Amino acid sequence: MEHFLGGDWEITPAGGVTGKAFFARHAGKELFLKRNSSPFLAMLSAEGIVPKLVWTKRLENGDVISAQHWMNGRELVPEEMESDRVARLMGKIHSSKPLLNMLKRLGKQPVLPAATLSDIYSRTNVISAHPVVADAVHFLEEQLPNVPDYQFVVCHTDVNHHNWLLSDQDELFLIDWDGAMIADPAIDLGTLLFGYVKQENWTGWLSQYGLVLTPDFFHRMKWYAAAQLLLSIEWNREKTRFHDMNRSLASLHRLMKAEYNLFGNGENKKDAFKK
């Protein structure tokens, strides 16, 4: 990487699970570099969803390096996830035809709810005996016929507060799109609403997003929220992150008790989907 940019650049790892992200600094310039990012990044940049893409270049070994403007700023705190601007940006993403068409051109196929359940079967067999897990899997099985397999949009799939960047110029971005898929918007909205927004504020939040809350959509969100938590529990178990695993188990237990109530008592907890 240093050879590619030149010896004057200071390059440091940016962290993350993949190890493919880096910071580069030189003479007051700062870039965020990523190895082998998806061509989808260019469309996200054009739509103003992520910081501006500066260039993309191919190395001799075939790797592709993308460079974005490094934005000074901070991640959102959990309480800020209830804000109207988060709802509006999420609505912009889910309603974007250019983003959807780009993922289709990249060969992405819609992820059907039955495929999600099959993925859970294959990945949670070790923990399936846990009563909370067993209860959630039974819920997914029972409710699968009521979860539609249409109205798919571009979903981020990991919209926890760590992936929302507020720049020093007061620009809001949603970053880290490695898990993007074409799927039911309830995947993202379930995480946001059950995880961060008091239920009595759901109607107003969804109004900013561009949706009217109904019992059917509530149950769709609950279905996908349970699926996301089950996969998170297994991922944390595999990584021996047992504290996070137990926290997600507790969140799943709360979720299973959640019922549709337009003026709810705030039963959902703000830490439900933190990793």
How would you explain this protein's 3D organization?
By secondary structure, the chain is α+β, with helices and mostly antiparallel strands. It is built from ten helices and ten strands. It has helices at 2-5, 40-46, 84-94, 97-105, 113-123, 131-143, 186-196, 202-209, 215-238, 242-257, and strands at 10-13, 21-26, 29-35, 53-58, 64-69, 73-75, 153-155, 164-167, 172-174, 181-183. The model is unreliable at 264-275 (pLDDT under 50). One of its GO terms (molecular function) is transferase activity. Residues 15-209 form the Aminoglycoside phosphotransferase domain. This is Phosphotransferase. Keywords: Transferase.
Strand and helix map with partners:
Blueprint: H1 2-5, E1 10-13, E2 21-26, E3 29-35, H2 40-46, E4 53-58, E5 64-69, E6 73-75, H3 84-94, H4 97-105, H5 113-123, H6 131-143, E7 153-155, E8 164-167, E9 172-174, E10 181-183, H7 186-196, H8 202-209, H9 215-238, H10 242-257
Helix pairs in contact: 3-8, 5-9, 6-9, 6-10, 7-9, 9-10
Total DSSP E strands: 10
Name of the CATH first level of the largest domain: Alpha Beta
Give the radius of gyration. Answer: 20 Å
Instruction: Characterize the main sheet.
Output: 5 strands, antiparallel
Domain Aminoglycoside phosphotransferase: 15-209
Keywords: Transferase
InterPro entries: Aminoglycoside_PTrfase (IPR002575), CcrZ_PhaseVar_Mediator (IPR052077), Kinase-like_dom_sf (IPR011009)
GO molecular function: transferase activity
Structure in a nutshell:
Keywords: Transferase. The protein is of the alpha+beta class.
